[in-house]
Amino acid sequence: MKSMFVTVSTTSFDELIAAARSPPALQALQSRGYQKLVLQAGWGSLPQPQPSSSPAAAVEAFRFKDSLAEELQSADLVISHTGAGSCLETLENGKPLIVVINDKLMNHQLELAKQLHRDGCVLYCNCSTLVETMQSMNLSALKPFPPGQPEKFASFLNKVLGLQ
């Protein structure tokens, strides 16, 4: 069963949750072959079950879990707030990612989203363009996120500390 996972991590981003479970978004999902939507609402409002006019899409929601690893591993697509930790964890798991900028916050989100998009790793949008992004997305065009190289950082630290 093809699934999409929406996460806001430990934030509150009700607009993203509402946009992802709106009838047009559910229709876009179904048209792309997704049958399951999992919503992680964080500190925001936990969505109430709605009567579905299209029973082909199962919707689950929760606030928090000890780890989101299981949801990330089982997702075929992740839609996330533009938190650096959420973006990196998703990309390191090799999952296609749409990052959604919270227009109400003035922070690093737009810069991070634009850079990851320039690198070819993500698609990005805001809540008002999420459905359009889902309808037009070409996930096969996304590039894998390059793995980290902690040994380079360790070597740099060793040089700075005079241990090398």
Q: How does this model look, in words?
A:
With 164 residues, the protein is α/β, with parallel strands linked by helices. It is 36% helix and 18% strand. Strand 4, helix 4 and strand 5 form a beta-alpha-beta unit. The radius of gyration is 17 Å and the shape is globular. The termini are far apart. The mean pLDDT is 90.
Mean of all residue-level pLDDT scores: 90
Major beta sheet summary: 6 strands, parallel
What would you report as the Rg, rounded to the nearest angstrom? 17 Å
Strand order of the largest sheet: 3-2-1-4-5-6
Query: Which structural class fits the helix and strand makeup?
Result: alpha/beta
Topology:
Blueprint: E1 3-7, H1 14-20, H2 23-31, E2 36-40, E3 58-62, H3 69-74, E4 77-81, H4 84-92, E5 97-101, H5 109-118, E6 123-126, H6 130-136, H7 150-160
Parallel strand pairs: 1-2, 1-4, 2-3, 4-5, 5-6
